[in-house]
What we know:
Elements: H1 2-90, H2 113-117, H3 128-136, H4 138-141, H5 145-179, H6 181-186, H7 198-237
Amino acid sequence: MIKFFRNIRQKLLAADKTANYFKYAIGEVVLVVVGILLALQINTWNDNRKYANDKIEFLNGIKNELKLDLKFADNLIIRYQKQLSYFNMVDTTYHLHDLDIVPLADSSDVLDYRKLMEKPLSFKAYNATYQSFMAYGSTKIIRNKELLISLQSYYTRIHELNSSLYGTIEKVESELNWNRAYEKKYKPYKTIKDLNDKQFIAELNYFFDSIHSYLALLFYVKDKSNELIDQIDKELNNKH
Length: 240
């Protein structure tokens, strides 16, 4: 009988040990799971903090490049308006299409072939930060779809318009310089009044019309750059 009770006692002790083991094992599993979840939460928090810092850095970089676009566009606008104003002196019938006539430093009657046939400059957006931003994964750090679409539209549209409009200018300028190589080299017309070659003036009209069209792109750059800078400022001030 005593042996019987001893066996029962041993079995109970073994069962108790097994129960304690399972409790210990479950506790270990719970600790591991909690540790993993905590580590994931910390990683998520670190990633969010990194993305927030990257967002500030990228947007400030793009904003600074947009300001450079504004400055570049302004300089080109002044340059082209001066050329158009000078051509208006050569051909007073040329309509500037509501552009202000820019006061010229040299308004003498001497014909300046350089101003008439100067090779134009192309606008190119400063986009190094934007390219890095897109390669990095823009949607990771900015969830503002409106801003993302505006940025993509700006850089795509600028590239397309510049390729088309400046391509036209280059073609017309090349034809003008080819057709008027003699005038460019020997400068037979000494004063503005001497230039009475209607064909030459017509070719110049065509050239300056293409420049006039290109100005529309530059004013577009100014408008869209200012709009994007405002959007970026709002996004940077948004704490959510």
